Amino acid sequence: MTATESDGVRVIEAEAIPTRYARGWHCLGLSERFRDGRPHAVRAFGGRLVVFAGEDGGLNVLDAYCRHMGGDLSEGTVKGNEIACPFHDWRWGGDGRCKKIPYSRRVPLRARTAAWPTLDQDGMLFVWNDPEGNPPPPQQAIPRIPGATSDRWTDWVWTETVVHANCREVVDNVVDMAHFFYVHYSFPTYFKNVFEDHRATQIMKGRARPDARRSSRGPQMLGNTSVATYYGPSFMIDELTYHYEGFDINSVLLNCHYPIDRNSFVLQSGIITERSEALPGEAADEMARKLSGFIQLGFEQDIRIWKTKARIDNPLLCEEDGPVYQLRRWYEQFYVDVADVTPEMTARFEFELDTTRPVEAWEQEVERNLAAQAAGERPA
Predict the structure, then answer these.
(1) 4 lies in some domain
(2) What is the CATH number of the domain that holds 86?
(3) Which residues on adjacent β-strands are paired with residue 236?
(4) Cβ-contact 228, 237 below 8 angstroms
(5) Per the structure, how many domains does the chain have?
(6) Are 119 and 219 part of one and the same domain?
(7) What are the Rieske domain coordinates in residue numbering (predicted)?
(8) Burial letters for 211-245: b for 16+ Cβ neighbours within 10 Å, e otherwise?
(9) By the 8 A CB rule, do 195 and 201 touch?
(10) Res. 1 pLDDT band, cuts 50 70 90
(11) Are residues 264 and 347 in the same domain?
(12) Count of Cβ atoms closer than 10 Å to residue 320 Cβ
């Protein structure tokens, strides 16, 4: 028996990171980015993809390396509805079949490459990943976002950041109420989780923190209400309302990612804001840009933690922590074969966190910080 075991010290456990990538829809970014008539390389799922729009306007995603002699199709040319390899001009269609070899009388019968199922919706391009090769089930479709196609809302303000960590870290935030106070300087007062089928929801209400407020001449924010749902392993839609003195600002925030490899992923956010009497025209566009900057700052705060933290499979939790183990059991369904998905992974689970003690402690901390600021001291 080691000294650590005899002393009862908690040992951090961490199994190897899964070698497979999550089954589900993954957003690659805004669709218009890929509609410039050129092929685009995307590093994802441990490999390299090529994204291109044909002359018919359809977006296609293929494995980037040509099955003929390994040429990189993302260095090729879009010709009609096909991507032409820069090495020997083999023409590949969006269905993965070779359509033409200019110097050959016929195309070999087995001239096929991997074509990824795609979804072009609400201004975004999604690809379906499934290690078993099954098509996307209709019940796991990404829901439409009405504001994304309405003139009453702004255009998407989009950001992308490469994070050198495993993507489970970002999903853990679904249940982690306390980090919103300590990392993001917000003040949650209500927190609930609901997991069911392929969806994981976080419902949170909060108030503004006067000790973290920047000086501003405009209306002061009072708090916010958030209903954020992951639809599958990587795409979250957050119906986010900011409460100000005399009016509300309605927005839709997207928090999504796709894996580059096992130890890195592309973290993305998109936000649109509803136009209103309090926020007409350009004012709504400016607010969307402002909110996007605020969200990006929050991501940077998270990333600083993720870069240095340990991967931990057996977190030591207190009573006021969220249902981390239940979330990870839900998340596991995307990393096993469909036949191995158990009822425990998809059954409805609800948990409302008792915020009495956190709110009491945080109110005291805010008061201490305000007192220190008034005295010209640096808050603890």
Answers:
(1) no
(2) 2.102.10.10
(3) 230, 255
(4) yes
(5) 2
(6) no
(7) 25-127
(8) beeeeeeeeebebbbbbbbbbbbbbbbbebebbbe
(9) yes
(10) very low
(11) yes
(12) 15
For residue 241, give every residue at least 6 positions away whose Cβ sits within 8 Å of its Cβ, in sequence order, or none: 224, 225, 226, 248, 249, 250, 251
Q: Are residues 177 and 38 in the same domain?
A: no
The domain containing residue 251 runs over which residues?
A: 150-370
Do 77 and 44 contact (CB within 8 A), yes or no? Answer: no
Residue 186: is its pLDDT beyond 50? yes
Q: Does residue 291 sit within a domain?
A: yes
Q: Which residues pair with 235 in a beta bridge?
A: 256
Is the pTM higher than 0.90? The answer reads: yes
What's the average model confidence in pLDDT over 163-175? Answer: 97
Mean pLDDT for 200-224 is 88
Confidence of residue 206 (pLDDT cuts 50, 70, 90): very high
Give yes or no: residues 227 and 95 share one domain: no
219 and 71 in a single domain? The answer is no
Are residues 136 and 243 located together in one domain of the fold?
A: no
Q: Examine the domain organization and report whether 94 and 43 are in the same domain.
A: yes
Confidence of residue 380 (pLDDT cuts 50, 70, 90): low
Rg (CA), the chain: 24
- Let me know if residue 8 belongs to a domain: no
- The burial class, CB within 10 Å (0-12 / 13-18 / 19+), for 300 is exposed
Q: Is residue 282 part of a domain?
A: yes
Domain boundary pick from 87, 120, 140: 140
User: Going by C-beta distance under 8 Å and a sequence separation of 6 or more, which residues neighbour residue 187?
Assistant: 180, 181, 206, 207, 208, 209, 223, 362, 366
Which residue among 91, 107, 140 closes a domain? 140
Supply 53's token pair.
């729009």
More confident residue, 94 or 5: 94
pLDDT for 6: 54
Q: Tell me how many degrees the CA angle 37-144-26 measures, rounded to the nearest 5.
A: 60
The amino acid at residue 151 is: D
Looking up residue 340, the CATH number of its domain turns out to be 3.90.380.10
Task: Return the half-sphere exposure (C-beta side, CA atoms, 13 A cut-off) of residue 130.
Answer: 17
